[in-house]
Amino acid sequence: MSKKNVELFAVDNLIWFINIGLILLFTIGAAHFLSYRNLLSAVYSVCGIGFLVYAESVCLLSGHFDISIGGIAAFSAVIGAMTCLYWVPGIPWPLVILEMIAIGAIIGMFNGFLIGKIGINPFLQTLGMYILLYGLVLAVARHTLFEIPSGLLAAGAARVGNIGIPLAIIILLITAVVYHFFLQKTPLGRRIYAVGSNEEAARACGINVVRTRILVFTISGMFSAVAGLLYMGYMGCVPLGLAEADIFLAFAGTIIGGVALTGGSGKVSGVLGGILLIGILDVGLSTLRIPAHWRGMINGIVLMTAILVNSFQYRIKKHLLSQ
User: Fold this and answer.
1) Please, what is the average pLDDT of the chain?
2) Mean pLDDT, to the nearest integer, of 213-219?
3) How is 209-278 classified by DSSP, letter by letter?
4) Nearest-CA neighbor of 59 among 208, 166, 219?
5) pLDDT tens digits, 44-76
6) 187-216: average pLDDT
7) Is 95 helix (H, G, I), strand (E, B) or coil?
8) Closest by CA position to 50, among listed 203, 197, 234
9) What whole-number distance in Å separates Cα of residue 32 and Cα of residue 271?
């Protein structure tokens, strides 16, 4: 392997080197950090937000972004919980899960239609949807929802095998594999990259840009709904502010995972690395007993660092490819 290929590999997989460095740093600070329990907890704690990162990544790959992902997660979870608790007691839980995913898809499709077809600014549209959905959550639920059927909680709460691996981790990893295959091997995946790279060139090649945008936001909505399902299981309830503040971490995980802010560039392996970074930080800071009131500042630093790292990766890779 040539020096250039080694450098490109290092740049493309920078997030994994960062994760290894963080693990070593936290292990130096607290030797017991590097344990099976802590590492499992680091992954399990971010399964819900992981699907928000998936949702944000597909939008950024297409050249847009979605602020409403947390609202979609919360609203779909509230509707699912209200359905089985009050509206249709005894309904089979698989139908409730399908209902939640359908809600996410419909909201995402609506966002995509207004952005792609009508031409509404994506920031304004998804911000408005974010505010609307959390308002609806308050209006519909009024309080935190408890006593949710175990079947509906299983995706985020159940454990499998003798060593008790959380089902949510398996779902997160299997989805990463399917998501990778979708982006790399399907016509729609290739169209998403093309539209994100150069919308006008994609249109000139016969790609239906409007349809692609609508499908992208539909997929984002579905990912967000699954995030709501995993949050629900992880917490054992549906709080009114579910995922409300996690939009910033979703952006950070996506960007530091190597998805270009300008669209058209990024890999699922990097996105997964960005998700794990959030979990490593969370568990590592807890292990070091960093006060909770410092977490917001640290998360802000992570987001700014993510933007710098993204810019660094893009410039270095562009320089290497031009040689």
Assistant:
1) 92
2) 98
3) HHHHHHHHHHHHHHHHHHHHHHHHHHHTSB-TTTTTTTHHHHHHHHHHTT--TTSS---HHHHHHHHHHH
4) 219
5) 999 999 999 999 999 999 999 999 999 999 999
6) 96
7) helix
8) 234
9) 27
- 53, 253 contact by CB (below 8 A): yes
CB 86 within 8 A of CB 146: no
Higher-scoring residue by pLDDT: 281, 12: 281
Element (H, E) at 128: helix 122-141
CB 216 within 8 A of CB 56: no
Give the DSSP letter of residue 165: E
pLDDT of 297-321, one tens digit each?
A: 887 787 787 777 777 777 777 766 6
In the predicted model, is pLDDT for residue 234 greater than 80? Answer: yes
- List the structure tokens of 38: 């802590």
Question: 171 by DSSP, 3-state: which?
Answer: helix
Residue 259 exposed, middle or buried by CB count within 10 Å (0-12, 13-18, 19+): buried
Long-range contacts of 26-31 (CB under 8 A, 24+ apart): 26/280, 26/284, 26/287, 26/288, 29/284, 29/287, 29/288, 30/287, 30/288
Residue-level pLDDT at 245: 86
| pLDDT, position 1 | 59
Question: What are the structural domain ranges in the chain?
Answer: 3-322
* Amino acid symbol at 189: G
pLDDT at 309: 76
| CATH class of residue range 3-322 | mainly alpha
Residue 138 in tokens? 């308050």
C-alpha torsion sign, points 53, 55, 61, 65: negative
The whole-angstrom separation of Cα 220 and Cα 77 is 16
Residues 22-33, mean pLDDT to the nearest whole number: 89
CA distance 258 to 15: 8
